[in-house]
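Interim report, section 4.2 (structural modelling).
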Amino acid sequence: MASVRLERVDKVYPNGHAAARALDIEIRDGEFMVLVGPSGCGKSTALRMIAGLETPTAGRVLIGERDVTALGPQDRDIAMVFQSYALYPHMTVHQNLAFGLRMRGASREAITERVGAVARPLGLDAVLDRKPSQLSGGQRQRVALGRAMVRDPQVFLFDEPLSNLDAKLRVETRAELARLHRRLAATIVYVTHDQEEALTLGSRVTVMRDGRVEQVGPPMEVYRRPASIFVGGFVGSPAMNFLDGEMAAGRWTGPASLALPLGPVPAASLPASVTLGVRPYDILIVASGQGDMPALVDVVEPRGNEALVHARLGPEGSGPEVRIVTPPEPLPPVDTVVGLRLDRDRLHWFDTVTGRRIGP
Amino acid sequence: MTARPRWGNVVLILLVVATAFPFYWAIVASFTPEARLFQSPSLLPRNPVLDHYRALFSQRDFWVPIRNSLIVAGTTTAFCVAVGGVCAYALARLRFRGKAPLLGLILAVSVFPQISVVSPLYLVLRRLHLINTYPGLILPYLTFAMPLTVWLLVGFFRQLPAELEEAAMVDGASRLRTMREIIWPLALPGLAATAILTFVYSWNEFLFALSFTLGPERQTVPVAIALFRGQYQVPWGQILAAAVVATAPVALLVLTFQRRIVQGLTAGAVKG
Amino acid sequence: MSRGTPTAEGREARLAWGLAAPAVGTILLVALFPLGWTFWESLHQHDLRMPWLGRPFIGAGNYLEALQDDRFRDALGHTLLFAAVTVTLELTLGCLLALAMNRAFRGRAVVRAAVLVPWAIPTVVSALLWRFMFEGRAGIMNALLVDLGAVAEPPVWFIHPMLAWVPVVLADVWKTTPFVALLLLAGLQNIDASVYEAARIDGASRWRQFIHVTLPLLKPAILVALIFRTLDAFRVFDLIYVMTGGGPGTATEPIALYSFNALLQNLRFGYGSALSMIVFGVTFALALGYIRFLGAGLTEARP
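Predicted structure of the assembly:
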């Protein structure tokens, strides 16, 4: 096992597009690091640079404190699970699993032993003689996993491995991966665009955008204390509500005459425009006339154990839309005015211009 | 799909008839005695004879041009698939500067009219004493066979998923090892299609074979047939018999491998 | 200046050039070098029948002579006519064919294979087959025409400067329509069936579906077929050499054949080289022009 570091890495393509800019990513030995962000944020590029499939235009890649920037993937002692699994279609499962060992000159006995040791816990020993085209999607995924495990590498790299699975299989496989991490005590770098996957799997999460790191930290910290409007809006579903407002005389005034104190933030350092962020779970629907502000109920989506309510701020619903999660009953009727009370302990404040978080 | 109007079937039937008729007619004629060839033609042979075929192989030694064609087309194909194949892999997969101009060059060369290079090739071959030899045909054939092969194989290699090679590299295989163990087996259908097409084009080539051979010992099949001369008149019977003999193996090749050939023709062209 | 990692990329580039070099070298040697030589030769006067005249440099002299050469102008006209007629016929018939083959029916593979055979045989054979069918007074074509009552007297096709073109064009169309049909068929199969369904729901008749859905989406394939066929038609040699020899006289002589005659029959190497350079120039210009159109066509037709 080893640590992984990208040190001030740039990746600029000949056509001028920059997939990474002064990227600093640090993954500790033995941790499960998830790189998450919207498509085009550079997470896959970062992973490929760790793998050696892309070379940085500037900066260094270190694996286990060794500078591997100039090395090809063959020499980095890493294993990768591709989004499409990339199983060798003309080889059997056994040959797929054995390929990496063969490339490193392992003896035939060692190969058979190792392949068996990996295939059994993955439930693949019955299909060792089949070709990938004869396997189900879940089986193929496990072969891809096995191929990585059989080589006992320093680092495991996963490139959106669950995106080809249906929802149910995805949840099952997620649990598998968590168990795997515990059992192998391996260093894992995992790329996904799904923020839910990131939160459930990672011991730490790196949120990326436009080739840069927006925030790094354990999942709960990224969820509870997003470092920017982008992170706040990206992590957590349904997404966080944002309301733009102005500072005046130490108080914040937002849309629909919503006025709130900021709490423990030194007033001197405040910018003029401040954006409030509040999650749908942290808003309570109360009777009209009560709470912090009125809102007109627009759309109600019952979801089983809870309901998602879309409401527009203001007594006539002329303000911006907010989303609120409420218990399934009683449901506020559509086109009525209700009151919204915000949980004071769960408010997030951001500088409207820079997007950065203000306060603790 | 829902039932199409019958005009489709009519077109197809007309098509197959129109395609097959010249062959059919030639086959019938090849079994018709010379004297009767241009008298009251009939759709079915009345008194089939084997004279023309016999003459073809005994008097005219038609085995010789067949042998020549096989050697020339075969060698050209083998060489081009091997050399052009690795070039195509580099063009399709590896990153390097100058790739686009190189592709452009290859495309441009495939457009060269043969007539534009025939005279210098003739002079060079004459200087090297290669006129009327096998190398003297194989070398000029590379003019059109090599760009064709590279172009077709680039199309095929591009269709192979890049992630397979990446997986192999991550697994520890060097580029060359990847080519051998992963690419090569998966590219076999493409290589086969390309080989067939290259072989067909080489077999059918006429201008170079006409210009660079002097006599029957090295002439290829198309040239031999075209230059059939009778003593008094054009020996149509033998010509047509030769045509049948020349066509039969090609027809068989096409009928057997039609799917591969279509793949080859359309892979590069439409999908670009 | 960003240094990146020169070794990894450099290694890949070196490997690439190593792999590509033999093929590229071959192409340079057997194609580019001779072309350059032909060009150089075309700038000289070089008549092998009159070696005492030497090989003086005359610049564009040969080309000027070509422009005033009636036989050359005729040949150019023949080539243009041949290209226009055959390409039009082949595209139309090929399209019909592709449409007819674009549905699953039993024996489709056999039909496709059967249709491919004319394309696969040597042009020489095709030329001879068709020559035979039109030959003499009692060839099968004449017999058919007389029987059908179309003509009273069976024409002698190959003696007549205009009539001689008929079997030539027919032979070319017969041989290469399958190739065009295949290209168009591949293009047809790339069209998503749901587009047609949407059109039907919108109330379009079959004809309108063809005009407004099929043709535009087929544009890339049509352009590719157009390029290949036009270039081939301009370079036509085998077919005419074997079928009519350019005759009667020079009535069916295309520019490639004229160049060939000038070179290897009249042994006028300088002039013949100029002619073949003109063939090359025309072909190349056409290819470039098409590629420009093809680029535009591709980006338009993408749904």
